[in-house]
From TrEMBL:
Superkingdom assignment: Bacteria
PANTHER family, per database record: HTH-TYPE TRANSCRIPTIONAL REGULATOR GALS, LACI-RELATED TRANSCRIPTIONAL REPRESSOR
Keyword match DNA repair: no
Pfam families: LacI, Peripla_BP_3
Lineage: Bacteria, Bacillati, Actinomycetota, Actinomycetes, Pseudonocardiales
Name recorded for this polypeptide: Transcriptional regulator, LacI family
Residue span, HTH lacI-type domain: 14-68
Amino acid sequence: MVEATRSGNGSARPTLEQVAAAAGVSRGTVSRVVNGSPQVSEAARASVLEAVQQLGYVPNRAARSLATRRADSVAFVVSEPESRVFTEPFFGSLLRGVSKELSASGLQLVLVMAWTAREHAQVEQYVRNGHVDGAVLVSVHGDDPLPWRLMENGTPVVMSGRPQLSHPSLPYVDSDNVEGARAATAHLYERGRRRIAAITGPQDMSVGVDRLAGYRKALRGRRGVPRDLCAFGDFSQESGERAMRQLLERDPELDAVFAASDMMAVGALRALRAAGRRVPDDVAIIGFDDSETARHTDPPLTSVRQPTELMGREMTRMLLTLIEGGSTTSEPVILPNELVLRGSV
């Protein structure tokens, strides 16, 4: 049952009883309206809302949480170290989408970073204790048990990216990573490049697996193209630079690179410059994400644009449906990508 609170200067705010008297209804009716119960007539609801506005009544949030058994908050859980979360544009764009969609719901957003096993255990306990009503899970690696444990506890969960095979029933939102990587690699081939390498992401994540699959799909059956000229990174700039050096050692004549993230492409550009290779004259390069960074590299980076902010909004819509008791077998949302051409090809 919702009660009124007192203002910081000690003066009493309007009470539930005062709202009921002004509206000409019972205290219980006011409580049902404030707590969103459908068991109220439209006439009574209109009277209560008018009285609430006239009196300036503000519900006690803590009391409301007790009454509704809701925390009125959602967790954004990222399974990456802080150094990546705050430096890589993907996470900020995704978070922005989640935040925008939540703003109209009245729910608060809680950012949680969990990289170590200890941090994962803390997150699990935090969610189990009822501090949030649901969770958006980002950058889940391999057989991380956290998504499944939260679902078993009855916590609504939505993932960013296709789940691994161990969690096939988890609802998720993703972009079409296979097609995006295929289109990027095919474009390099169509521009006359033949020794096309790939810097792909970690293979314990579906995004890394799918972008590698797209690269291979584009080159399947092509004549005169080396097979699987690949090096692996973790989507970071440092890993892209390291992978580019490895590829140059393996094939000094390579003339194109598909990098599975813009940050790895930036690292590759640095390694190519250090090796005296001109972009795009000697080596063409395409990234993935179309982050703000892609517009400011030298030369500007051709990249696969994925609608990251929209992904965040779609994840939030799906999660809010689950929180309100909607179907837990939501169909995945797969969003299309677009190849954005710039000077690196």
